[in-house]
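Re: [ENG-882] Designed sequences occasionally contain unexpected residues at chain ends

Forwarding the minimal case from QA. C-alpha cells:
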C-alpha cells in the first residue's frame, strides 16, 4: 500500500514534470519547481527547504537560510546532511562581491600515510567504515563562521527549525524509511547508530513512522547556547572522543580544538557572457570545470547538437584531460603546491587539446597529466542553492562522503561521523570508492584536507547571480555541474530541463564513458564506439539542485528529479 502510494505520487510528479518540460521556458509551474518567487531555496529534502524559507521570511538573508538548511538537513537527511562531516560554501552578494568558505574535514593529527596498511596490504574497508574512516568534522565551525560574517539573525534563531525537527520528530518518507532499513545491518554494528537509526522493536521502519532524535536536539541546543564551543569543546567533544576510543578511531580533543574552517578566493572562470565563481582547492571541481570550459571555447557547441555523438566525444575528451590533471596535481593547497593559475592558463588548456582528434577517442593510458611550466613539486553528499530577495546567492555542498558516512554515530550526541578519509590517496594507484586514482599531493598527512569533487558554483552575468549550481555524486559532481551550466548557457534550456536531461561522465580512469541509461540513442552509441570509446550505462549521474534567474529577474528553483528534493519560495 505504501509503495503503491509512493508509486502513484512519483508517477504524477513525472507526468507534471514532463508537461512542464513540454511547455518550454514559459511561465508554467512544475510540481517541483517554483518560479516568480521573491526568494527561493532548493534542497534535497522538503522540510529543510521549508526551514530555509521560514528563515528568509523572518528577515534572514541567504546566508542565514543556508546555515538553517545545513542544520535542518543534519536532522532530516541523515545519510548526507550532517554535523559530523564537512563541505563548501560559495557566496555571491548583490553588491558583486564573492567569497567561499572551506569547512572540509581534516585528517586527525595522529593520521599518517600508512594508516590503512595492514601486513603490507592496503585495506580499503578501514577508510570507508568505522572509527578510523573519519576526518575531523568542519560543519559547525563553518556555519558559525559564515553566520558571524554575513548573517543577520542569531545562531539560536537559525538553529530553531533543526532543533524542533529533532526534538518533536517528523514522519519518515518512503525513501527515508527505505534507506534506513537498507543500512540497518551496518547500524547494528555500532551501539550509537543502532540506538538512533534502527527501531527499538527490531522491526523495519515504515513510511509515516515518527523519527525522533532527542540526543541530536540536545547537541544542537548546545551549539545554539555556546556556538562552536558547543561542539568542539565540552560535552559534545567528550562524547565524540569517547566514541573514537570505542571504535579505534584517532580524533582527539586537540584535533577538535584546532579545527578551523577557511575563507578562500573562489576560482573565476569565464565563458561567453558568463562568469563562474567556483569553490577552489581543496575542491577539484573549480580547476576541472574551468579547464573544460576553456578547452570547449573554440567550438560551436549548438552546431554540434545536444548529446550528438560529436558533442559527447568532444566533452568526453575534455573531461578525460581535466580528470588526469586532477589526479596528478590537486590536493589541499595548504599542504601541497597547487599550480592553480598554470592549470587554468588558456595557453596550457589549448596545448592539452592539441592531440584531440574528431575521429578517434584518446586512450587514458596515453593522456596522463600535462606539463605545467615552472611548477615546484612539494610534497551521500547533498547540495543546496539559495537566493534571497536582495539577489544574494549561496551555494553549499556538504557531505559525510558515503551514505551515512562511517556508519558510526556518536553515542549520546546523536550524529553520524564522516568517512571522508577515503577521499585521500590511501594507496597510490589504488582507486577510492568512486574509482578515482589520485596522486601524492593528496596523500594523507596530519591536519591536511582531502581532495574533493564538490563544486558549489555561482554563475554571474552583468554583475548579478544568474545560476546557483552544484550537485551530489562524487566525481560526477564535476561533470553534472558542467552539464547543467552548458545546458542553460549554450542550449538555452529551462533550468528544469537542464538538470533533467540525460548526462554522461568520464573521469580519465577508468577509461569508461558512463551515460545515463536511455540517455544516448543506439546510433549515437555506435558512432562513439566506432571512435574507440568504451561505454557503460549508469544510473543517476549526480543530483543537482539549482536556482536560475532569467533575463527579467524571475527566479526558478529546480530540484533534480533523480532525487526527491523540493524548491520552496515566497
Ligand atoms: O568530496 C567529495 O568529492 C566526496 N566526498 C563527495 C561524496 C559524494 O558526493 C557522495 N555522493 N553522493
Amino acid at each position: 500500500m505504501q509503495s503503491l502510494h509512493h508509486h502513484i505520487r512519483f508517477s504524477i510528479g513525472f507526468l507534471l514534470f514532463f508537461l512542464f518540460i513540454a511547455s518550454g521556458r514559459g511561465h508554467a509551474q512544475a510540481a517541483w519547481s517554483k518560479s516568480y518567487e521573491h526568494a527561493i531555496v532548493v534542497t534535497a529534502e522538503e522540510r529543510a527547504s521549508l526551514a530555509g524559507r521560514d528563515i528568509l521570511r523572518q528577515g534572514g538573508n541567504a546566508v542565514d537560510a543556508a546555515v538553517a538548511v545545513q542544520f535542518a538537513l543534519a536532522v532530516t537527511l541523515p545519510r548526507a546532511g550532517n554535523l559530523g562531516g564537512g563541505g563548501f560554501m560559495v557566496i555571491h552578494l548583490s553588491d558583486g562581491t564573492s567569497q567561499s568558505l572551506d569547512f572540509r574535514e581534516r585528517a586527525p593529527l595522529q593520521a599518517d600515510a600508512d594508516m590503512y596498511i595492514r601486513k603490507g596490504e592496503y585495506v580499503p574497508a578501514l577508510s570507508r567504515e568505522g572509527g578510523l574512516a573519519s576526518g575531523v568534522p568542519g560543519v559547525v565551525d563553518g556555519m558559525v563562521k559564515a553566520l558571524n560574517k554575513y548573517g543577520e539573525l542569531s545562531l539560536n534563531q537559525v538553529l530553531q527549525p533543526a532543533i524542533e525537527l529533532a526534538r518533536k520528530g517528523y514522519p519518515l518518507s518512503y525513501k527515508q524509511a527505505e534507506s534506513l532499513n537498507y543500512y540497518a545491518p551496518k547500524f547494528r554494528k555500532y551501539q550509537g547508530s543502532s540506538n538512533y537509526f534502527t527501531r527499538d522493536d527490531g522491526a523495519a521502519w515504515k513510511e509515516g513512522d515518527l523519527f525522533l532524535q532527542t540526543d541530536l536536539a540536545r547537541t544542537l541546543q548546545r551549539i545554539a547556547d555556546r556556538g562552536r564551543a558547543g561542539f568542539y569543546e565540552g560535552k559534545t567533544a567528550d562524547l565524540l572522543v569517547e566514541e573514537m576510543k570505542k571504535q579505534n578511531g584517532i580524533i582527539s580533543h586537540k584535533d577538535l580544538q584546532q579545527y578551523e574552517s577557511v575563507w578562500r578566493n573562489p576560482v573565476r572562470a569565464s565563458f561567453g557572457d558568463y562568469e563562474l565563481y567556483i569553490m577552489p582547492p581543496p575542491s577539484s571541481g573549480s580547476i576541472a570545470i574551468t579547464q573544460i570550459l576553456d578547452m570547449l571555447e573554440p567550438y560551436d557547441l549548438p552546431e554540434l547538437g545536444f548529446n550528438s555523438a560529436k558533442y559527447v566525444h568532444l566533452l568526453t575528451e575534455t573531461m578525460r584531460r581535466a580528470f588526469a590533471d586532477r589526479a596528478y596535481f590537486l590536493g589541499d593547497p595548504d599542504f601541497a603546491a597547487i599550480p592553480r593559475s598554470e592549470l587554468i592558463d588558456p595557453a596550457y588548456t589549448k596545448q592539452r587539446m592539441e592531440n584531440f582528434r574528431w575521429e578517434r577517442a584518446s586512450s587514458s593510458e596515453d593522456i596522463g597529466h600535462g606539463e605545467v611550466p615552472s611548477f615546484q613539486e612539494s610534497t551521500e553528499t547533498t547540495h543546496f542553492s539559495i537566493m534571497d530577495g536582495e539577489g544574494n546567492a549561496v551555494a553549499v555542498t556538504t557531505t559525510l562522503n558515503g551514505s551515512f558516512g562511517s556508519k558510526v554515530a556518536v553515542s549520546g550526541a546523536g550524529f553520524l561521523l564522516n568517512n571522508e578519509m577515503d577521499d585521500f590517496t590511501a594507496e597510490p594507484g589504488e582507486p577510492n570508492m568512486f574509482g578515482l586514482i589520485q596522486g601524492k599531493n593528496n596523500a594523507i598527512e596530519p591536519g591536511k584536507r582531502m581532495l574533493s569533487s564538490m563544486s558549489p558554483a555561482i554563475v554571474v552575468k552583468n554583475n548579478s547571480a544568474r545560476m546557483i549550481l552544484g550537485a551530489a555524486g562524487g566525481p560526477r559532481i564535476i561533470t553534472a555541474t558542467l552539464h547543467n551550466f552548458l545546458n542553460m548557457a549554450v542550449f538555452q534550456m529551462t533550468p528544469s530541463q537542464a538538470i533533467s536531461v540525460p548526462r554522461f561522465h568520464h573521469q580519465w580512469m577508468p577509461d569508461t564513458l558512463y551515460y545515463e541509461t536511455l540517455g544516448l540513442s543506439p546510433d549515437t552509441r555506435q558512432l562513439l564506439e566506432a571512435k574507440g570509446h568504451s561505454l557503460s550505462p549508469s544510473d543517476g549521474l549526480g543530483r543537482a539542485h539549482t536556482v536560475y534567474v532569467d533575463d527579467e529577474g524571475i527566479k526558478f528553483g529546480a530540484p533534480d528529479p533523480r532525487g526527491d528534493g523540493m524548491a520552496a519560495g515566497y
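QA comment: On inspection the terminal residues look reasonable. The first strand starts at residue 40 and ends at 43. Proposing we downgrade this to a documentation issue.
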